[in-house]
Amino acid sequence: MKVLVTVKEVAEVADDFEIEGTEVGERYLEYDLNEWDDYAVEEAVQLKEDGPAEEVVTVTIGPERSEETIRMALAKGADRAVRVWDDALEEPDLLDVETKTNLLQAVVEEEDPDLVLTGVQAGDDAFGATGVSLADELGFQWGAVVNALDYDADENVAHVHRELEGGVEELTDIELPAVLTIQTGINEPRYASLRGIRQAQSKEISPKSLGDIGLDADAVESDLTLTSMYEPESESDVEIFDGDASETAGKLAEVLREKGVAE
Amino acid sequence: MSDVLAVAEHRRGELRDVSFELLSAGRMLADQTGGDLHVAVVGGDTDGFADELDREGVDAIHTVSEGEEFNHDIYAQAVEALHADLDPQVLLMPNSVNGLDYAPAVANRLDLPLATDAVDFEYDDGLTVTREMYGSKVETTVEVGGDQYAVTIRGAEWPAAESVGDAEISEFDADIDTDTGSVVTGFEEVGGGDVDISEADFIVSIGRGIEEEDNLPLIEDLVEATDATLASSRPIVDNGWLPKNRQVGQSGKVVTPTVYLAIGISGAVQHVAGMKGADNIIAVNTDPNAPIFDIADYGIVGDLFDVVPELIEEFE
Asked: Does any CB of chain A come closer than 8 Å to the CB of residue B282?
């Protein structure tokens, strides 16, 4: 079977940063592979190593810069990558779920995978919705927040655990083709080996424009407009201990004694 | 078309807290749109759930008797059918694991713009939603286009509706195809183990800040010196450094100790959901802007590798 993994390059914000208008200043951002997608890539690569999957393809919505991140996924074992971009995608400052669904749907229909893995959410905009929306649009089955996956080739069914709140997991059987959104902790993502990094250089990343996947600029008109961005106000009046490590530890110890939890 | 439709959530025979928070959020929004608040409950003991959901501010409750537990195919069909019947302006759903398993499908089917994980919103001739980005480091306001919307709300952001109401309760007969492609086969409690952190009085909890597994003994020394109970945030358990029964948070345990000492924990919302009930929260973190300081009572802005050895010395 063929597994398609959605891979997003996300921006991470430095400890200290400034907001410029409705954006975090570019110099405070670092780009990286979305944490949840890292687990999705690993799960796909393991499906290939264990036998059921013949090919692992990644798909990314992102500008040329994101190829660095895509290479990380290739270095970890994905076979090839598709990258969709168009200048029209630079316009909206917040891509809505529908737009991402439209773009990914076009690629999925072209690639025709049996299984699509996505991260549960992206570390930057944190919508947590694209995978399920995509499945519905494709007419695929789906499962959200999957933290264990056992594929049964005879039945073409994915036996999954969905991680609910409060330490409870739901056991669900999902027929393929399906989209599963992958939760962190499902596996242990590998580091890219030097050999993998070298090999990744020769793997194919196909850039696609909107036209290449049969869409036009209407497909990227976002319903969401970011109107303001600010640092959240502190809800508490936290008492910060001043001083060097010894002084602050001393004050902390005093509080612990005062509260009666340590002597 | 100015009404609000909120979809309740239940699991294993009980309505979840977020259901009652949805009622408060829904009432607030319906007051702004000038419409009624409708509530839907799908599956399980719908009559019993409807009685419980009949709180002040709720105008109508619609029950859909299909299935015992949550199934996304059934929920998506039921909510789609109710939406077609009621034509509400805003569809509110929980931003829970199950909410995220059907809300995006419903929004897609109904062609509604979707704003997830709302912590606030305001309607004034259009909907504006407040959400966080970059792991809660920034808050944003987002204008949602169109004239009908789908929104999922974060748990514990609105108070739970309490007083008894006098809503009209009726059964909604949705035409549901029960031949679903996914089947729930059971539930499993995870964790277990030797220690129940939810019973602990003093918790020392660690996060990403400890950097690597080799640094764990330093924290264990502190735990031993202070007779505390060791817990952690999600990444530590994901890495396999501590077992699942030590995880505090939305997908782990909820704890209510006298003191919760958070070391190297940034304070992601999923983690905070599990520990904000502590009497005293103390945070040690290098980042003065870490969200954990927003809920902490005491804090040290500093390197845990400097502070923890000093703290151990205090108690040895």
From this structure: yes
pLDDT score, position B193 = 67
Mutate to test the interface with B, among A170, A182, A239 (most CBs of B within 10 A): A170
Per-residue DSSP letter, B86: H
pTM equals: 0.94
Cβ–Cβ below 8 Å for B137 and A137: no
The single-letter code of the amino acid at B132 is: E
Helix A67-75 vs helix A194-201: crossing angle, to nearest 10 = 120
Interchain pair B238, A261: CB under 8 A: no
Q: Which two tokens stand for residue B88?
A: 């509400």
Residue of A47, A241, A217, A147 whose CA lies nearest to B298: A241
Q: Do A224 and B258 touch (CB under 8 A)?
A: no
- Quick: pLDDT tens for A34-80: 999 999 999 999 999 999 999 999 999 999 999 999 999 999 999 99
Q: Is pLDDT above 70 for B192?
A: no
A149 and A116 Cβ atoms separated by less than 8 Å = no
The residue among B11, B138, B232, B259 with the most chain A CBs within 10 A of its CB, best to mutate, is B138
Q: What is the pLDDT of residues B204-222, one digit of tens each?
A: 999 999 999 999 999 999 9
For residues B263 and B207, the answer to whether their CB atoms sit within 8 Å is yes
* Residue whose C-alpha is closest to residue B22's, from B101, B90, B104: B90
Alpha helices for chain A (secondary structure H): 35-49, 67-75, 97-111, 130-138, 194-201, 245-258
Q: For residue B189, is pLDDT > 90?
A: no
